[in-house]
Amino acid sequence: MDLRIGGASALSFLLLLFFFAGTCFALPEYPQKPSSSASSTAQINSNSVLVALLDSHYSELAELVEKALLLQTLEEAVGRHNITIFAPRNDAVDRDLDPDFKRYLLEPGNLKSLQKLLLFHVIPTRVGSDEWPTHTASARHQTLSQDHLHLSSLASGEKAVDLARVIHPDSVTRPDGVIHAIERLLIPRSVEDDFNRRRSLRSITAVKPEGAPEVDPRTNRLKKPAPPTKPGSSPVLPIYDALAPGPSLAPAPAPGPGGPHHHFNGHAQVKDFIQTLLHYGGYNEMADILVNLTSLATEMGRLVSEGYVLTVLAPNDEAMAKLTTDQLSEPGAPEQIMYYHLIPEYQTEESMYNAVRRFGKVSYETLRLPNKVVAQEADGSVKFGQGDGSAYLFDPDIYTDGRISVQGIDGVLFPAEEVESKSETKTVQPAKIVARPRRGKLMEVACRMLSTVGQNSRFTTCQ
Q: At the N or C end, where does the chain have fewer CB atoms within 10 A?
C-alpha cells in the first residue's frame, strides 16, 4: 500500500515536471532589441567607407564631420544602404574657402548650417563613375540634407557635380560606399542665403558713424577736414549743430551720408519704428503728429542717416487726448512738443532705470533747447518730469535697433517753466470768482415758488 502511494506520488511528480517543461518551451521568446546605435556600430568595420574617409587625405572634410557631430548619422545611413560621398580636397576647404564663411560655419550657433552643408555632399545610394550620365543628359539625386544634386558630364569628358568638377572619380571604393574627389566645397542655397543675411546685418551694425568736417560756429563754414575718428566714436559735431534754429529742421553742417559706406538708411529706420508704433497699438496720435502734422519723420530719418542716435519718449493715445486745442493751435506747437520728447542719446529701459537707481535724478538733453527732461526712480519704474506734468515709463523698449529707441510713456511732458506757469494760472483764476452763500434746501424751494408768481426779485436772498 505504501509502495503504491509512493509510486503514484513519483509518477505524478514526473508528469507535473514534464508539463512545466513543455509549457516553458512553448512560451514565446522576446529577445532584447539592440539599440540603434549598437546595431549601427556593429555594421561598421575597418573596411567601411566612413573609416576610409576618416583615414584618407580628405582630413579637412573629416574634421568638419566630427565637429558637426554627424558620425552617428552617417553610420546609420551606411547601415541602411550604400552611400556616395563627394569629398573636396583639403586645400579647397582650408585655403580656397572664404575665411568669413568658414568662421560662420564653425560658430556654435550655426551647427545646423554646418550639418546641412556636409550632408549635402552625401547621396544615400551608390553611384560609381561607370553609372555617371553622359554629357547629353544629367541625373538628379536627393542628398541626406533633403536637397538635390545634379550629376552631369562636361563636353571635355570630365564629370561634374553641380558646379564642381570631379577631379578623381572612384577615389575610394568600399563595399558600403564610394568617395569621389571634387575640386571645391558644395554649398546649398539655403546655407548661402543664411550666411549672406548674417553678413549684411553684421556689416550694418559694425559700421560706426563717420566724422564730420569742423565748422566755424561764427561763419558756419568749413574750417578744415575733421581728423579720422576711432570705430565706435560719436559724430564730431553734436546733434544740435545739425539742427537749424526754428520750428523745423533745415539742412545744416553735420556728418553726411556721402562717405564710402552708405549703410545707414535713416528714413527706412524711422518708417520702421513708426510702423512698429502702429502695430503695437495705442500710439496712433504720436505717429500721426510725426508724419502728417509735422515734417519730423523726414528730418529724424536724415539725422539717423548722418550717424546720429535718438531716443523717443512716445506718449500714448490716452495722454495725447488730454492736450487742449490751445496747446496745439499755436504756430510750431506740435514741433515744440515733440522736440521735448526727443533725446539725442540712445537709451533703453534698462540703461535709464540703472541710471536713476544709481544717481537718483538724471537730466537728459532734449532737442528743445535749452530744456532738459528730468528722470527719477518711482514705484520700480522711471518717472519723467515733476508734479502734475510727470509721466511714467509705461511701455518699455517698443522699438530698439541700435540707432532709434522708442519708450512709451503715459503722459505728455512739458518743460518745468510751462508747468509752473500753468499751475499759477490755475491758482489765480478761482480768486476772480465771487463766492455766493449757499442757500438751504427750504430756501431754495421758497425762491422757486416766488419765481413762479414773479415776486422773487423783492428778496435779495433769491437773487
A: N
Quote the CA–CA distance of 294 and 332 in Å, as a whole number: 9
Q: Is 53 exposed, middle or buried (0-12, 13-18, 19+ CB in 10 A)?
A: buried
Q: What are the two backbone dihedrals, phi and then psi, of residue 461, each rounded to the nearest 5 degrees?
A: -65, -30
**Is this prediction's pTM over 0.70?**
no
pLDDT in tens, 303-354: 888 888 899 999 999 999 888 888 877 888 888 899 999 999 889 999 899 8
Contact 61, 87 (CB under 8 A): yes
Residue whose cell numbers read 437773487: 463
Ramachandran category for residue 3: left, alpha or beta (phi over 0 → left; psi -120 to 50 → alpha): alpha
**CA 55/CA 394 separation, integer angstroms:** 63
Distances (CA, A) of 217 to 132, 209, 233, 253: 76, 22, 22, 10
| Cell numbers that stand for 222 in this block | 568749413
Indicate the SS3 state at residue 245: coil
| Nearest alpha-carbon partner for 123 in 86, 160, 165 | 86
**Cβ atoms of residues 192 and 116 within 8 Å:** no
- With vertex at residue 60, the alpha carbon angle to CA 57 and CA 61, rounded to the nearest 5 degrees, is 95
Helix (H) or strand (E) holding 142: strand 138-142
C-alpha cell at 446: 421758497
pLDDT at res. 55? 74
